[in-house]
Every structure is written in C-alpha cells, then in structure tokens.
Specification:
alpha+beta, 19% strand, RNA-binding
Length: 834
RNA sequence: GCCGGAGUGGCGGAAUGGCAUACGCAAUUGAUUCAAAAUCAAUCGCCCCUAGCGGGCAUGUGGGUUCGACUCCCACCUCCGGCACCA
C-alpha cells in the first residue's frame, strides 16, 4: 500500500480540470450552452489582492466551492467565476514606502492568488477572470459613472472631509483610526472640499422595502442595513428668525412636544451661522467656538458623556405653534449631517436638550405628563421621553400625545408652518478620492464652456473611454490627488468646445469597482458594452453570495444601490443582485484576530503543502458552523487529515477485492452498513439544505467511514459484503467531494469509475432509512429507565405491555400508581406514577 | 444607551419538545514494533454507594408551561458583534 499522498492526487485532478476546462460554462447563444438546465450563480466576494491569500480566503472559497459543487450535482448549470478587487490603498501605501508602482505589486499578488486558488482545487470558470484595475474593466466603471451623472445620480458638491494637517492630504474614512491619521498619528481635522457623490439617498426607501424581495439573507445583516439607513418618521417644522428674515426648518420625531420648545440650536457647520452673527457682539465668541469644534476629533465630539457646550447667538426664532420667541445657540451636539442641521430643543422631553438647558440655565417646560424613573434627573421627573397626556399645549391639552401627534402635524401643514416628513440617517455616498490607485473619474473641467469663473463639468464621451490612469513617479498625496502632478495628462481638450481644459484628478472609491463586478463576470470580454442585456438577464441574480460579515453594510448596500440604479437605466431586469446571502464567520488563532503584528497568522499555503488542499478545505468547513467564527487548531487539522487518510486506506483495501452483487448484501452487518450509508446521504443532504451546516455534514461522513471500519473485516469474507464496503466507501467519497474534491474524485473513480461531479447527488433509499425494529425509550416520570428493541410498527398497547414488563421499569413502578401513560409510537413510552 | 448573536464535558462543537454530550481534539489503556512514529482497538461529564443490568446531579442563573425542556415563555447575569449626542 502506498498511503495517502495528496500531492499526487491533487496534481492529477487539477491538471485534468485545467486541461478540460471542466468548470467553464457558456453563455446563451454561445456554442456549448446548455439551455436545458436551470442556472445557478454561485459567487464568493472577490478578493482584494494584497500579499498572499490568508485563511479567511480559504474558508470563503471552500464554503462557496462546496455550494457550487452541490448545485452542479443537482442538475444546475453553475456559473462560478473569480476576479480581483485590485485598486485600493494598500498597494498605493506600499508604493509610497518602496517606490514600487502599485500595478506591479498588485499583479504579483494576483499571480499568487490565482496560483493558490488552482492549488486549492476551487472549481472556477477561469474564462471569466477579471481585475478591476485593468483598463478593460475600469473603462466600464467609468461608463457607468457617466450614466449615473446623466441621471443626476452622480453630482459634485462641497462637503466636510477628513484632512491630515501633517501629511497635507485628504484621507479616506478607512484611513482615520480613532480620530487620527493612520500613517502619522496626527489628529485629523475636518475641511470643506468639493467632492463627488452618488445619490444613494434617493434609493433609501427602496433599499428598505426591497428586503422583501430577498430569498434568504441573515437576519442580522438586514437589521444592520436597516439601522444604517435609519428611517425616522416625524415632521419638518419651520422656525423663523424675523430680524433677518430667515427661515429655519427643523426635523423632529416629536412634533407633539412643540409647545415645550424653549430654545433653538444650530450645528457649528450650519451655513447660515455667519449671517446670524456677522457684526454682532457674539461674533467673536461664536467663531472661536466653531474653530475649536472643527479641531476636535470626530470621536471626542461623539462622546455622550462629555458635558454639553455651546454659545448663545444673541438671536431668536419664533416657535410657530405659540409665537414664543426662543433664543438661538450654536452647539456641537447638533450634527450638520443629520436632518437640517438645526433643532428645536425641548429640554423637558429630551435628555440632551435637558443637559444643555441645565448648563445654560434655560427654562424647562413640561408638555407631556409622566415620569420615567430610569431617565428622570430632577424632582419633577424630568426629562421624560415617554408618552402621556398633554399639558401646556393650548387646545391639545388633555389629549394623549400619540393621539394628538397627527392632529398637530395636520394643523401646522394647514397654514404652511410644517409638514409630515421622513428623515434618513443614510447620507449620500462620497466616491471621490484624492488618490492615485483607482479608476479616474471621467470628466474634464472647461473654463470656456463654463460661466462667471466657474468651469463647466464636461463628461468624457463614451468613445474616449477609458480615461487611462497615467504612469507617475510620486504617489505621495500633497493635498491634492497625485494625478495632478501628471501635467501632460491633466491638460486636455474640452470634448465639447475643443478649448484647453483640465481633467478631473480624483479617482473613484474602490467600492464603486466592486459594486458591479458580478455583472461583468457574465460577459467579461465584451468590448462593445459593459454586458449584454440578455446574457445578464439570464444569469442574474446571484443565487448564492458568500462573504465575510464585515461587508454587511457598505459593499452589500452599494451593490444593491447600483443594481437598482442600473435597472432604472434599463440596463438590467433585476432589482436585487443577491437573492441569497451567506456570511462566514472569522477564523481566529489562540482566541485572537490574526494579525502580522501579533504573529498569530495561519498561512494556508503552508498547510496545503503539509497536508494537502483537501485537508485544509475540509478542516475549515468542519471546525464549527461556517457562519460562526472558530479558533484554528493544528491538532484539528490533523484530525481531518486522519479521516481523509482512513477513507483513502479503505479505498485501497477494498479496490482489488472481488465484489459481488450489492442486492445480495441483505442481512446482518452488510445491511447495517448500507443503512448507515443511506443515513449519511440523507444527513449530508439535509445539512446542505438547512443553511450549509458543513461541520455536521463532514461529521456524518466520518461516521460512515467509522462504521465501515467496524464491520469491514467481517464483510470481506463474502463478495456481497465486499460490495457493501465498496458502496460505503464510494458513497463517502461522493459526499465528501464538495469539501475534498480531489480525494472524492479519485476514490470515486477507483471504486465506481467515471467522474463523481458528473454523477447526480445521491438520494437516500427510504427503504434503508427505516428499519424493522426501533429502540423504544421507556421513561418513568420523564426519566430514562430502559431501552427495549421493539417492532417498528408495533401498536401502542404492545409497546405499553413491553414497557411494563421490563425489570428495570418495574423497579420504579413498585408500590406506586400509574396515573398516566404517554406513548409516542416508534419512539417512547412515558409512565407517570404517583 | 439601542439593535443583533451566543452561553452545553478538559477543548472545538452535536441534538424536528422525546436516549444530553454525535463528530473531532486532548488524555488514558491495550495490540502491533527491538523501540518509536504511524496504524488498529478500547475507555473517557461530575458525584455517591452496598460497585450494579445501581442511584443521584448536570446544558449561564431564577421562575414558568408540559407526561417530558439544551430546545418554548418570563425575569436576570456574562461574553461577542454592530450602531451610537440621529433631534
């Protein structure tokens, strides 16, 4: 015997799959397209190629590949592509440090990923491979940008952004760690700059409503997105500053507390602040305060524990419900980015307003009766955020606030003082980056086309795409995009008037690239369009999407937004990109997240080298439920390797033996082994269907192999018995194939001949799933007292009689009276005694 | 604070309201071997005793529903994840 040699087996099958292009599928209309099969689009989130693949990649692709194989063997035409999310910061930061062009480091990493995916035996359709950093791809990213621009869904606006004063650069949000610059540790400041946005807020309502269109998404992911979108119902009410003839709309979820508004607060970034204070005694103090707030880190400002600060403006507004003049303040607890950047403060019924009122000695006026002891801070039981009868609210007094809510809104709306409103926490997606390694934004600025000093934004015509990323020398940002230094590239002609114009030097957020890659796979080499409509309609939506839960909000929501926008542009027929989502949990080591600095990383390549890809893949599926995390254990890997070796040895042992007719293997341990095999088929199938419970699926296959070991020596004496062992081993190979495809294919070929992936997924024989006798559990007062073999179809009376006959049971019935008998046929008898 | 998820042997984890601890790891023992590794076989929750085909206790804590609860309900504790001055 030669022993289990994964290197040899794995190389053999990988070669065959590559040569025969086993996993490639054709599009409708292409030769080889199989229109007779239903389609299944199985997709794992594409990797970000930086360095080498890590163990999280292994788990993601092992899980996804198992699903792809399972679908194929259920008769689906499975499309299972792969690509690389190749633009992004790490490659660029590496370039700044080492001078190596981002493209080179990225290509090197991609080569490593590609090689390892092949060595893992993942069943990828390589004909559809793509990299988001190639002009062939980002040309279409730019094309989509232009379509969004035409629709008004991409726009340019001034916005506060994160700025590092030491590096003199704008930072991406991901580069701000605890309010400091990721690279130099300097506290980050906010600045207002012109930026590009996508109008995702237009889709807030549909992004919420269309959760109903999804088949199966983890509940917590839906909840996280729901919270992120943060829909609130309330009213927009206008407060007027008569002295300056200025209207200040506010959003409130509590219009029922309007009569209790005793002051009014603007965010420090509020655009009207300057007009309110110009030339007033408050001017200087307000300016100082605003500047001080601007220097605060975002984290400090968000600290709820901090005492409330602010400055009076010396101005007032009129409360539209009662005509009261209430003083205006500026305070940092009001955020410009939520609502209108201004609030009416109702200290009696809002904890934050209450604290501010205390700090500034402002009146607190109760308008709802009630006390919440958990929140109340004073003798009167204020603040009180709950519900109750109204008071001090004019004609609404005595009514319950919930009841009066709608009436107040209607009353305000009647004469234009306010209206019902919905507000979202979601903000528009800021997509421009002052960065080199991304897709250039395809517009130019033309002074000649513009007017009054403001240049016109002129989109680059489709036939001039892609706007290629130029080669540059210095990648370090200098407060503007590094692309600005490529002067020859920046200087261009206006496509509209031909005059001298300048290119946009910002690039797009990499989340833009990954918001549509799953469509490009479907028609990856189309040079005339991002995709062919019919082809995309055939394959979409993705039937099963697999990835890390860390993308629960951003990537998944952006891709949903893109899909809806593209559907509105009449480029797609689906409203939702991912019908089913599976989020895999994170693998830790020694209970901690893996990181290079902790030195607790696991290199998949090392384990594949030592134990083979089948062992590594099966182990990550076996270590626990895949949606949960798990701690990596070298001993656990060895355990899985032992199991695969046992299957291999079983195969080698039984292969040369002359086997008889399986139908003759009717009695004794042969039948028991066959029954175990069918039990395993049933169990693994159900574990797949019930949310990919791969740990128990692998365990069931282990049980089958263990059972075969227990009985094999007895069965070898008889050809029918040998046939039963062969069947058990081949079934184990078939069931383990989605996890350990090389070994599964090899054992199957040796014992059954042919290719296991072309064989339909086995179906358990109901005849062998049931047996003539069952183990009857006998309880007395719910406690197990005996187990008795009984005929499976025995009537209740017989089971009761059997139970009462048992010596062990009688001992517990002694001197007692049976007051109740519970019989579950085929399972259990419970005798209740007193 | 709000919203999710989870608490089961020495460890990772199994259990449509019906045999708690499948499967794996670790540990112990035996076979094989000159020996070891590998392999094969077996034992393996805790406690008690009269040592058996024995009894009791165990699924975070306390209640409840039920003939019967890891599973369902109520209250609480702990841990993990997300959001967080969102008006």
């Amino acid at each position: 015997m030669s022993g289990y040699d994964p290197k040899e087996i794995e190389a053999k099958w990988q070669r065959l799959w590559a040569e025969e292009k086993t996993w490639e599928v054709a599009n409708p209309g292409q030769p080889g397209f199989d229109g007779g099969k239903p389609k299944s689009y199985v997709l794992e989130m594409l990797p970000y190629p930086s360095g080498e693949p890590h163990v999280g990649h292994l788990k993601c692709y092992a899980v996804g590949d198992a699903i792809a194989h399972f679908h194929r063997r259920h008769g689906f035409e499975v499309i299972h592509p792969m690509g690389y999310d190749a633009f992004g910061l790490p490659a660029e930061n590496n370039a700044i440090k080492t001078g190596e062009p981002p493209r080179e480091a990225t290509e090197r990493s991609i080569a490593s990923f590609r090689k390892q995916f092949r060595e893992w035996g993942i069943s990828i359709d390589w004909s559809r491979e793509l990299g988001t950093h190639t002009p062939e791809y980002y040309r279409w990213t730019q094309w989509i940008f232009l379509r969004l621009f035409e629709k008004g869904l991409a726009y340019r606006d001034e916005a506060p952004v994160q700025w590092c004063p030491k590096d003199a650069t704008v930072l991406a949000n991901e580069q701000v760690v605890d309010g400091r610059c990721e690279r130099c540790g300097t506290p980050v400041e906010q600045r207002r700059l012109e930026q590009w946005f996508f109008k995702i807020t237009d889709y807030a309502e549909r992004l919420l409503a269309d959760f109903d269109l999804l088949e199966s998404w983890p509940e917590h992911v839906v909840t996280m997105q729901r919270n992120w979108i943060g829909r609130s119902e309330g009213a927009e009410v206008t407060f007027r500053c008569a002295e300056l003839d200025l209207d200040f709309p506010v959003f409130t979820t509590r219009p029922d507390t309007l009569f209790g508004a005793s002051f009014f607060v603007l965010a420090p970034e509020h655009p009207e602040l300057e007009r309110l204070i110009a030339g007033t005694p408050a001017e200087r103090e307000v300016r100082e305060y605003v500047n001080q707030v601007a220097r605060e880190s975002v984290e400090d400002r968000g600290d709820e524990e901090r005492p409330k600060t602010g400055v009076p403006l010396g101005r007032s507004v009129v409360n539209p419900v009662n005509g009261e003049r209430i003083p205006m303040f500026v305070a940092d607890y009001v955020l410009m980015e939520y609502g209108t950047g201004a609030i009416m403060a109702v200290p009696a019924h809002d904890a934050r307003d209450y604290e501010f009122a205390r700090a500034f000695d402002l009146p607190v006026k109760r308008v709802i009766e009630g006390v919440d002891p958990d929140v109340a801070r004073d003798d009167e039981g204020l603040p009180y955020p709950g519900d109750g009868p109204m008071t001090g609210s004019g004609e609404f007094d005595g009514k319950h606030n919930r009841e009066a809510y709608g009436e107040i809104v209607a009353w305000l709306a009647g004469d234009g003082r306010g209206e019902a409103a919905v507000n979202y926490r979601l903000r528009d997606w800021l997509v421009s980056r002052q960065r080199y390694w991304g897709a250039p934004i395809p517009v130019v600025y033309c002074d000649a086309c513009g007017d009054a000093g403001a240049p016109a934004i002129v989109p680059v015509p489709d036939d001039q795409l892609p706007v290629e990323l130029p080669e540059i020398e210095d990648y370090a940002p200098q407060g503007r995009s590094p692309l600005a230094a490529a002067e020859d590239w920046v200087a261009t002609e206006c496509p509209r008037c031909g005059a001298a114009a300048r290119r946009e030097t910002d690039t797009m957020d990499t989340f833009v690239d990954s918001s549509w890659y799953f469509i490009r796979y479907l028609d990856a080499h189309n040079e005339a369009a991002p995709w062919d409509r019919d082809t995309a309609d055939h394959w979409l939506p993705v039937d099963q999407y697999i990835g890390g839960v860390e993308h629960a909000i951003l990537h998944l929501m952006y891709a949903r937004f893109f899909t809806k926008a593209l559907a509105d542009l009449d480029l797609l027929s689906v409203e939702e990109p991912f019908a089913n989502l599976f989020t895999q949990g994170m693998i830790t080591r020694d209970g901690a997240k893996m990181s290079k600095s902790k030195g607790n990383t696991v290199s998949p390549a090392e384990y594949v080298e030592r134990y083979g890809a089948d062992t590594a893949r099966t182990y990550v599926c076996f270590m626990g439920p895949p949606e949960r995390g798990g701690d990596w254990s070298d001993e656990g890997v060895e355990g899985v390797n032992r199991f695969l070796s046992r299957l291999w040895r079983l195969c080698e042992e039984v292969e040369p033996l002359p086997a008889g007719d399986l139908d003759q293997a009717a009695g004794g341990s042969a039948r028991e082994l066959l029954a175990k095999a069918h039990w395993a088929i049933d169990k693994v199938s159900r574990d797949f269907e019930r949310g990919f419970q791969f740990n128990t699926a692998v365990a069931a296959t282990m049980e089958l192999v263990n059972e075969a070991y227990r009985v094999k020596d007895d069965l070898y004496t008889d050809p029918a018995g040998v046939a039963a062992v062969r069947f058990a081993a081949a079934t184990a190979a078939s069931l383990i194939f989605p996890f350990a495809p090389h070994l599964g294919a090899e054992v199957w070929e040796r014992l059954r001949g042919g290719r296991v992936w072309e064989d339909r997924w086995p179906v358990a024989d109901p005849e062998l799933l049931s047996s003539d006798t069952v183990t009857l559990v006998v309880q007395v007062n719910g406690k197990l007292r005996d187990r008795i073999e009984a005929a499976a179809d025995a009537p209740e009376a017989e089971l009761l009689a059997l139970a009462r006959e048992s010596e062990k049971v009688r001992r517990h019935l002694d001197g007692k009276q049976v007051v109740k008998e519970v019989v579950v046929p085929g399972k259990l008898v419970n005798l209740v005694v007193r």
